[in-house]
Amino acid sequence: MAQRGVRRAVVIGGGIAGPVLGMFLRRIGVEVTIFEARAAPAEQEGAFLGIAPNGMNVLAELGIAGVVEARGAPCAGMRFENARGRRVGVIDQRDAARRFGAGLVMIRRGALHAALAEEAARRGVAIRYGARLEDVDASDPREVVARLRGGDEARGDVLIGCDGFRSRTRVSALPGAPEPGYTGLIDFGGFARCPGAPVEPGWNVMVFGRRAFFGAFGAPGGEVWWFHNSGEPAPEPGRAAPPGAPGGAATSEALRERILAQHEGDPGWIGDVVRATPEVLGPWLLHDILTMPRWHDGRVCLIGDAAHATTPHAGQGASLAMEDGMLLARCLRDEPEPEQAFAAFERLRRPRVEAIVRQARRQGSNKAVSGPVAGWLRDRALPLFLRIGAAAQARVHAYRIDWEERAA
């Protein structure tokens, strides 16, 4: 049963955190409306991601793990290679269900967004597309108002910002919060059919190249899902992407050639996969938020990347967002007033998420090297780094939220 102070929730952002939060809030009797800036579900947007066992366990609590698994593919593990194609380590995930209660699932981002939105709507969560937040008015201590582009307003007992690392909620409601920091790495991706690529179905192959990092997943039906990370100087003020990044076929070809040049001398199959890709996706400049003084103010709270943006290097962005949604709903269920619930949520979440953001930043620093000597040193240290990373990953995957436990 919802607490007397929380009957209506305004949720900004309909990606991952928003629908998961909405479904848990409906479970405790809260009326939820999600306001999403995109004009329609983004089923073709982005590349792909992994939902780790800890994230899949959140979906299992909602009863939708099978729905998401059906749109993705189980991942057996990760194999790591150096620029010469020599294997330097393996993280085997085939016994993850036994160890952690669920396995690792790879899924296209658009497919995940669609699955979560459909399930949220089926459970009574209202989703309004084309509703872009302009400002948050929290001047009334009894409610909070979201002012939308075009003059519309939405009122609720609480407002939750789930609108990503560029969060408009954060800018409006917590104006002193730090901006996300650029990590110095850039991301591209794509989907290809390349029968000769040595990427076994169900496995990720990760290559620490001479100048850049390349990851590929063997997806069902013979597709190869891939991503590329490389170092990129901070963009000049006012420029959102590196030279040549705006859309258009010519730009895509220029980006393809740029990626191929950065993998010259690396295993030849990487070039084959990139050439076989109909459209190169990206670029995405990778940002994170190592820490923020606070995630909430009054009746407004941030979750997911809006509060603790992380890079994809730890494979935890989606799963942390899901955990956030579950735990915040539990806190709103158990605490008598919103501000107390938000304070409990932040106290419980901050140590875990900030440790993972730092871990992701460290892992990303190994992906781009400044020259042959740096690459040689990195390759010598990789087996040790991978063993340490595998142990840290296991601890992260083992984390479980007990819905029945009361917020402390």
Automatic annotation (TrEMBL):
One function term, GO molecular function aspect: monooxygenase activity
Gene3D superfamilies with a match to the protein in the record: FAD/NAD(P)-binding domain
Stretches the record annotates as Disordered: 230-250
Highest taxon in the source lineage: Bacteria
Keywords recorded for this protein, A-Z: Monooxygenase, Oxidoreductase
Domain FAD-binding: 9-172, 292-359
InterPro entries the record matches: FAD-bd (IPR002938), FAD-dep_Monooxygenase_BioMet (IPR050493), FAD/NAD-bd_sf (IPR036188)
Ranges of Low complexity composition bias in the record: 231-242
Coiled coil: none
PANTHER family associated with the record: MONOOXYGENASE, PUTATIVE (AFU_ORTHOLOGUE AFUA_6G14510)-RELATED
UniProt name for this protein: Monooxygenase
Source organism (scientific name): Sorangium cellulosum
Taxonomic placement: Bacteria, Pseudomonadati, Myxococcota, Polyangia, Polyangiales
